[in-house]
């Protein structure tokens, strides 16, 4: 991706609320690298997994409205949330069918050509990997890159990376000077939206992932999805109570790690917003 | 009983397809008879430990037309849509799509969900998007606790989230909200006009 490229930017609901630090760090990093993010006007929710659970058509129509807006801007659609990315990719795949395209075009009330390409911002930043103006190398920091489900599966539709052992985030992490630890739970499910209706399941799955990251020797976990982040970070306190197991593993957005390497301060990257404080680990490595 | 027939695609249908199978195949686009019960889906399913049937047995139940068993199972609600099963199935069946189609069937038939809270969560999520155009986390949590009659669920995290400013108190406003409401209404109208096939009890001799 050449410097100076522009994207129609779809933050998705959480980047404007619970995951503001992801939005802020992404914007800082992009600005530094000369990538322009033009936020879509009046964007709405992608429907997450709930729209699709009631109606196949609704599950396509909500993301189609976003696809149409990017198409109108004539720019590729840049997405930061793995859930939104997945919904947009799946919708675009379904819209390849002419009848579906016509029907959904009528439903969203606008001409729809299904012309916008959808990219995750991790893919965009991976393209900059070789030319990062590193100010502060993250040497000594051991990072477990966690991809979760929706970035990598189904591979033939999202076209992202290997489904079982993806590498994209690992090599970006290594480009900052940090060490990406090899581990086996990169694409295991964190429990997604079950943190509300079946917290027991989400807790167990997230705990397993964190335990594995810890066993692999990681100092922190890197993520590219606000839902994964919330499950892995916020619930460590509950894990301590339920499993009597202190995890204490900070979970950062990959954009925050990049931001640190590009010379931004922890304060600018809103590192303080995490429930498991990453500053002690960073300070111990002389990085904050 | 009808004898096995060779379909144009070359698969053998030993029995006439059940209404359940017809529904699932039309809604998910998957061929459930391709499942040969290897069990790889259940082996890798993160939720399997909490499920009654698990994905492999759900696949078998669909092949056998056991609609009531499938609709009453917790499995269709405990599926996280993680797609691990679909990625690993040697018969290349999109099992996650099959699970999704069974939830659509449960909605169409108004069957009682074995996991009431999961179904409630999805419904409230949709209601909030219809109302505001974007999700409103605090509202979702509050409604869930009230309607699900578990007023104190998930409260432990609240102070931590609030003190870090992670939970906005008010919903986000977007001018897109009215368009989103219109989309919900038009989807509903379109679905009334052309409903999915009914998953009747018994079998259906139609073949693909
Ligand atoms: S992995 Fe595929 S073939 Fe094997 S049991 Fe599951 S659905 Fe059937
Ligand atoms: S998609 Fe559903 S059934 Fe398949 S592995 Fe994931 S949770 Fe299990």
SSE order and pairing:
The complex is a heterodimer of chains A (288) and B (208).
Chain A: E1 6-10, H1 20-33, E2 36-39, H2 48-54, H3 56-73, E3 77-79, H4 82-94, H5 98-108, E4 118-120, H6 121-126, E5 142-145, H7 155-158, H8 168-175, E6 179-180, H9 199-215, E7 220-223, H10 226-234, H11 236-243, E8 251-253, H12 254-261, H13 279-284
Parallel strand pairs in A: 1-2, 1-3, 3-4, 5-6, 5-7, 7-8
Helix pairs in contact in A: 1-12, 2-3, 3-4, 3-5
Chain B: E1 5-6, E2 12-13, E3 17-18, H1 19-28, H2 40-44, H3 54-63, H4 67-72, H5 75-78, H6 84-88, H7 95-109, H8 116-132, H9 137-147, H10 158-163, H11 177-193, E4 203-204
Antiparallel strand pairs in B: 1-2, 3-4
Helix pairs in contact in B: 1-7, 8-9, 8-11
The structure holds iron/sulfur cluster (2 copies).
Structural overview:
The complex is a heterodimer of chains A (288) and B (208). By secondary structure, chain A is of the alpha/beta class. Chain A has helices at 20-33, 48-54, 56-73, 82-94, 98-108, 121-126, 155-158, 168-175, 199-215, 226-234, 236-243, 254-261, 279-284, and strands at 6-10, 36-39, 77-79, 118-120, 142-145, 179-180, 220-223, 251-253. Chain A has a four-stranded parallel β-sheet, sandwiched between helices. In chain A, helix 2 (48-54) crosses helix 3 (56-73). The longest helix of chain A has 18 residues, at 56-73. Chain B is mainly alpha-helical. Chain B folds into two domains: 5-111 and 196-206, Alpha-helical ferredoxin (Fumarate Reductase Iron-sulfur Protein, Chain B, domain 2, Orthogonal Bundle); 116-193, no CATH class. Helix content of chain B is 51%, strand content 4%. Chain B contains eleven helices and four strands; from the N terminus they run E-E-E-H-H-H-H-H-H-H-H-H-H-H-E. In chain B, the strands form two sheets. Chain B has a two-stranded antiparallel sheet. In chain B, strands 3-4 form a two-stranded antiparallel ribbon. In chain B, strand 1 and strand 2 form a beta hairpin. Classes of the chains: A alpha/beta (288), B mainly alpha (208). Chains A and B meet through helix 2, helix 3, helix 5 and helix 9 of A and helix 6, helix 7, helix 8, helix 9 and helix 11 of B.
């Amino acid at each position: 991706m050449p410097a100076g490229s522009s994207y129609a930017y779809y933050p998705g609901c959480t980047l404007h609320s619970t995951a503001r630090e992801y939005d802020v760090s992404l914007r800082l990093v992009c600005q530094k690298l000369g990538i322009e993010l033009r936020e879509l006007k009046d964007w709405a929710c992608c429907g997450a997994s709930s729209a699709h659970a009631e109606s196949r058509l609704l599950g396509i129509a909500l993301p189609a409205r976003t696809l149409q807006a990017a198409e109108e801007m004539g720019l590729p659609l840049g997405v930061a949330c793995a859930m939104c990315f997945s919904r947009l990719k799946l919708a675009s795949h379904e819209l390849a069918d002419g009848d579906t395209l016509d029907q959904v075009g009528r439903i969203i009330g606008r001409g729809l050509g299904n012309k916008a390409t959808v990219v995750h911002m991790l893919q965009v930043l991976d393209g900059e990997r070789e030319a990062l103006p590193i100010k502060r190398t993250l040497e000594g920091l051991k990072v477990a890159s966690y991809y979760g489900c929706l970035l990598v599966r189904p591979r033939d539709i999202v076209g992202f990376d290997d489904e079982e052992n993806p590498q994209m985030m690992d090599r970006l992490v290594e480009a900052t000077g940090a060490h990406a630890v090899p581990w086996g739970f990169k694409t295991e499910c964190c429990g997604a939206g079950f943190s509300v209706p079946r917290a027991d399941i989400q807790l167990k799955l997230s705990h397993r992932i964190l335990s594995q990251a810890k066993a692999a020797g990681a100092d922190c976990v890197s993520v590219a999805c606000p839902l994964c982040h919330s499950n892995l970070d916020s619930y460590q306190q509950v894990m301590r109570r339920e499993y009597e197991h202190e995890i204490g593993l900070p979970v950062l957005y990959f954009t925050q790690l990049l931001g640190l390497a590009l010379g931004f301060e922890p304060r600018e990257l809103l590192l303080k917003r995490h429930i498991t404080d990453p500053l002690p680990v960073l300070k111990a490595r002389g990085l904050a | 009983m009808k004898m096995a027939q060779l379909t144009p695609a070359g698969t053998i249908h030993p029995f006439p397809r059940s209404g359940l199978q017809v529904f699932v195949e039309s809604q998910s686009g998957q061929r459930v008879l391709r499942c040969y019960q290897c069990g790889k889906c259940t082996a890798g399913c993160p939720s399997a430990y909490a499920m009654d049937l698990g994905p492999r047995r759900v696949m078998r139940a669909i092949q056998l037309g056991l609609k009531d068993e499938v609709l009453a199972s917790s499995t269709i609600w405990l599926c996280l849509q993680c797609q691990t099963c679909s990625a690993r199935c040697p018969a290349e069946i999109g099992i996650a799509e099959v699970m999704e189609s069974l939830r659509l069937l449960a909605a169409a038939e108004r069957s009682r969900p074995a996991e009431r809270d999961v179904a409630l969560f999805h419904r409230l999520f949709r209601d909030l998007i219809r109302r505001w155009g974007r999700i409103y986390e605090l509202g979702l949590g509050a409604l869930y606790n009230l309607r699900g009659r578990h007023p104190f669920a998930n409260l432990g995290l609240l102070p931590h989230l609030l003190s870090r400013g992670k939970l906005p108190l008010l919903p986000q406003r977007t001018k897109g909200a009215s368009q989103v409401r219109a989309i919900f209404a038009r989807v509903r109208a379109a679905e009334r006009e052309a409903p999915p096939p009914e998953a009747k009890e018994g079998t259906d001799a139609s073949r693909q």
